[in-house]
Amino acid sequence: MAYRNRSKIVPKEQNAWNVPVQPKTEPVGGKARKSSPGRSSKVTSSSPVEQGVSGSKIPLPTVSSSMLKKSQDKFNQVQRQHAETAKKYAADYVSSEDEEQSETNGEGSDVATRNILGDVLKNYHGIDADVGKTQEYLQTLLESRNAVCLICIETVKRADRIWSCSACYTFFHLMCIQRWANDSMSMKRINHEQQEGYYNTRGEYIPKPALNVQWDCPKCRREYVPEEIPRHYECFCGKEREPSAHPWLIPHSCGEPCEKKLVPACGHTCRLLCHPGPCPPCPQTINVSCRCRCSPVKTIRCAQKTWTCTRKCKRTLGCGIHECDIQCHDPDNCPPCKNRSEQSCLCGAQSKEVNCHESRWQCSTVCNKALSCGLHRCERVCHAGPCGDCPLGLPRSCPCGKSEIRAASCAERIGTCGDTCDKLLACGQHRCPERCHQEACGNCLELVPKVCRCGSTKKPIVCSREAICEGRCKRMRPCGKHQCNRKCCDGQCQLCDKVCGKTLPCGKHKCSSLCHQGPCYPCNQKSSVKCRCGGTVVEVACGRERKANAPKCKLPCRVASKCHHPNTHSCHTGECPPCTQPCGERNDTTNCEHLCRAKCHDAVRVVTRDKNHKPVGPWDVPKEIVEVKTLPHPACTEKVTVMCLGGHETVDWPCSNSKPSSCGRPCDRLLKCGVHRCPLPCHKVTHRASTTQDSRCEACSAGCTLPRPAGCIHPCNLPCHKPPCNPCLVSIKANCYCGLTQVFYKCHEFYPAGMVDKGSEDMAELDRRRESFLSCGQKCIKNFPCGHRCFSICHPGRCPNPELCSKKVKISCKCAHRKAEVSCKVARNSPTLDCDQQCEAIRAQKQEERDRKEREARAQQELENQRELEEYERKFSKRKYRERKRHQVQQEETGRHWAVYVLPVVVVLVGVVTYVLLME
């Protein structure tokens, strides 16, 4: 068999539209196309090491060099000829299988799709969003890879005669939809014939329903009448019969404007070219007012028809009470009133809360009102208006109707007349022979000669029955396989009601249709075709899963990787490609910390040959043994930066030869004290990148020299160390603010470290903490300016909030009659009380008593003064008896002298009396 390059053979795709594509230009030189992933080309290239002068894999024999050279040249020449022949055959070969088509170029297909869509939509001048649905539908059809008739499950090709549903726009083969419609209507006729009338539980005869012969769409089940069965192959718009296929038009299209009536009907037609699927909304513009006709005219798209303004309707609703408050809507189309009110029923017996639009409601109470006759009562259920006349008082006749109509009293019962009923029976030929009776007439019992349905027997039978003989029909049914076997058949043999049961072409299922002639419908079941990993599944027609290729899966490959790297390629068929990622593992050859940067060598295909094989000639090639081996890591050749023992300087050395040494510089590592550095020369340390003291560095022996916090006078007792120092734990004794108690606190608590750079808030917090340390926690012993004791805890400075003193004090009015006990802060605002009328009366009484006492005291004083004067005159009268005038003068002078002494005494007494009165 000749060699076939499967990279040139592209499987035919089931494309119903066959959109033309731009041919892909071949590169200069006739380079063969890239091979497909499923089947690799047999023309493989080898590495330069394995190839000889022209790519041969034959090892050089150890025999004669001249013979070897000639044989090798001849073999290489034949090999090149075979390779060129294979390439030429692969480039010129095209598959002739009917199920394969040439693969369309992706870029050319997109260009063609855009061109066709542009031509179809070029006459549409509406909004892009309105035509988006139609454009998406057309683009999906143009780019679809598989268009299948849902009846026969076969591909719908470009040249096939089709019919498109007007509801779901799904297309089918014309012959398939015709057969589908005819079969559907035939089955409905058969089912209708098999149905018969029956008597229900009340003895009423229920005839079989009328025949409704319609067929429906296989997908959307939209019903069509028999006249709508398609008879001709037409384009989508229905203007042209048998449209010809054009490469740059939509398949099955005539290329003319669609001109279908738009939906909803607006009077305009579709302006697109003949197309499948729904027509876009009408793009025309119209001038129309809002729905309530209250706003000015506005220009909108015809597809929108109406628009709504922001006004609210103010029309009165049907209840006649409330107004419609709904936003703009059609006139005279206000919704029912949703308000509720108490309404009575039609007869007025009951009432309940109902909606305003349900104000007239009917209860279940029987009227039971006395009729006009006075003998009977109304038997109607809740109604409005009068009950009317008694129905038994109307003119009546006997049941058969032969007696004369007469007006009888409603209390009188009309009986039978005794004559023959003589009503026409249901058969329409005979009359009832019974006497006049109240109930309905029975079936006709007259014996009438009748011929059975098959016409073979004639015998008398009751008129109401159908004549049926016992003969069985021996004719074959339309299926041609089974007899009719119907009892007394009238010649219209029914279709076969047995299931076909033949095995379908898929070989898995059986035909479930009724027994029929000709081939069965294809299997309508679906089969799943999975990719290798099972993550991607596509459904194909049952029976075609063997010929269907595995679907292209974009999920990652689930095959266990042969190396330590995960598979980064997608799901595929066949063996996984070799790993091309860097190794990435630690190089254990040199035991360094570098990762191996070489190509992954965990699973390498190694081709070996038998070294002991002795070739007979150039054609005797030793058998190649392909093994998958794990190769060791190559030696690490990366340049690494090597530090000295102390980590002061770096030098680039190969990874295997890197050995650190001392550079001779001072170690200069910061010791643990954080102040001094190591004075030793460069030495080996544990961590060379570290700049702090190592275990091999010389320890610091100096004392602590760090400054203490401001206010602390105690030295640090630790050896030299890095800041900060330990907190000062010396206890300090001090007097509290009130001076009664001594408090103790730690030095580091009163003078904390690191307060130099703190903000005002931190300093304020420190001051509050210091105050808490110096406070004894007892009640302050100081007094407020008012004289009461401070109620705060021991504190510095003046006592806070003296105005909030709440001690109880007594206050009185000016006359000291009214007294009250109030808080100190209230007494400061109002130190005295207001006097009342009783105070005025007491004050007047006291004033009168004072005046009386003053008069008495004045009289007493005058008497006392007179007595003293007399005593004085008695004692000193002998020295002045000679000169009378001088004696009188002396008496006046003596009187003035007494007044000088008496007046202060009187003033003192008055003051004492006034003080006593005020204190009372």
Summarize this entry quickly.
The protein has helices at residues 65-92, 106-121, 128-143, 174-194, 747-750, 760-774, 824-829, 837-876, 884-919, and strands spanning 162-164, 171-173, 198-199, 205-206, 215-216, 223-224, 285-288, 298-301, 340-344, 351-355, 447-451, 458-462, 526-530, 537-541, 604-609, 624-629, 639-643, 650-654, 731-735, 742-746, 808-812, 819-823. The protein has 9 helices and 22 strands. Helix 2 (106-121) packs across helix 3 (128-143) and helix 8 (837-876) packs antiparallel against helix 9.
How does this structure look, described?
- There is one protein chain.
- With 920 residues, the chain is an alpha+beta fold.
- Among the domains are: 130-190 and 211-283, Herpes Virus-1, CATH 3.30.40; 339-378, no CATH class.
- The chain contains 9 helices and 22 strands.
- The chain has helices spanning 65-92, 106-121, 128-143, 174-194, 747-750, 760-774, 824-829, 837-876, 884-919; strands at residues 162-164, 171-173, 198-199, 205-206, 215-216, 223-224, 285-288, 298-301, 340-344, 351-355, 447-451, 458-462, 526-530, 537-541, 604-609, 624-629, 639-643, 650-654, 731-735, 742-746, 808-812, 819-823.
- The strands form 11 sheets. A two-stranded antiparallel sheet has the order 1-2. Strands 3-4 form a two-stranded antiparallel ribbon.
- Strand 13 (526-530) and strand 14 (537-541) form a beta hairpin.
- Helix 2 (106-121) crosses helix 3 (128-143).
- The chain is flat.
- The protein starts with 64 loop residues before the first helix and ends with a helix.
- The model is unreliable at 1-63, 90-109 and 885-895 (pLDDT under 50).
